[in-house]
Amino acid sequence: LDEPFAGVNPGLIERLIDITFELNRSHKKTFLLISHDIPSVMKLCKHLTVLSAGTTIAEGESEKVRHD
User: Fold this and answer.
1) 7-40 burial, b for 16+ CB within 10 Å, e for fewer?
2) Residue 68 has pLDDT above 90, yes or no
3) Cα distance between residue 26 and residue 48, in whole Å
4) For residue 60, what are the contacts with CB-CB under 8 A and spacing of at least 6?
């Protein structure tokens, strides 16, 4: 999913997050999410890889990355 929250009404972002969770649970699929919307990413992702200029600067469980 490439920037799925860009230009989306904030009220709909929560719904998109819920739909993505449901697809993950019901179909047991992993999603690749590319986004600059950090609060939504933190709600949605269990594992993160953070890039800057194409270089990995942080990687791991979301909570650990957030605190580093």
Assistant:
1) eeeeeebeeebeebeeeeeeeeeeeebeeebeeb
2) no
3) 22
4) 47, 48, 68
CB atoms within 10 A of CB 44: 22
- 49 pLDDT band (50/70/90 cuts)? very high
Residue 18: both structure tokens together: 């819920």
pTM of the complete model beyond 0.85: no
Report how far residue 36's alpha carbon sits from residue 34's, in angstroms, rounded to the nearest whole number: 7
Q: What 3 state SS string does the chain have?
A: CECCCCCCCHHHHHHHHHHHHHHHHHHCCCCCCECCCHHHHHHHCCEEEEEECCEEEEEEEHHHHHHC
